[in-house]
Amino acid sequence: MSGHGHPESAGLAGFTAAYLVQQMADFKSGARKDAARMNAIAKDVSDEESRQAAEWFAALEPDAWTKVVETATVPETFVGQGRMRFVKPGGATEPIGNRIITVPQDVARARNRDPHSGFIAYVPTGSIAKGKALAESGGSGKTIACSICHGDAYHGLGNVPRLAGLHPIYIARQMYLFKDGTRNGVDAQLMKKPVARLTGEDILVLAAYFASLTP
Predict the structure, then answer these.
(1) What is the pLDDT of residue 1?
(2) What is the DSSP code string of 66-81?
(3) What are the beta bridge partners of residue 86?
């Protein structure tokens, strides 16, 4: 296992063991919600098992897993096996709009859950530069500079997790969950204010920028 995850799940490689243990505890308590999978899984895992798994994932080295590509048009896609998005046969395209479209680099390997085959994330043209500007400046008070908590290269700071190189749709999903209160817990309280005034476009460009960085 690489620990890189898939677009519909989280990458785990290289986070601190303490951070991962806390997330499992939050899933177990219900403070962090993922009713489809993680809440039930966490309830069946002992604290010792959580610690052992966390230490194993923390020892893995993260590397580039998602290639972020800016574009105005994307292949037509559908959501299929494993809740992943795949390109429709036929080669038709459509405007990307205000979306992140993530597809496997190798469809066959992704269908088989190959832990060494990554993804391509299409984002609207200009997203990376806009995300960089917002992350660094805070958008004139809309939020705060992200490096204050996540480190200068967004590689994490202590038990504050890294953002660099994570799946962009995972990053976006977590910001929405912080905004609507679905994700709670100790660390979540630090994120409530920074995301409170972010728009959907803000979230998209931040996710695109962080995902484009070297983990």
Answers:
(1) 65
(2) EEEEEESEEE-EEE-G
(3) 78
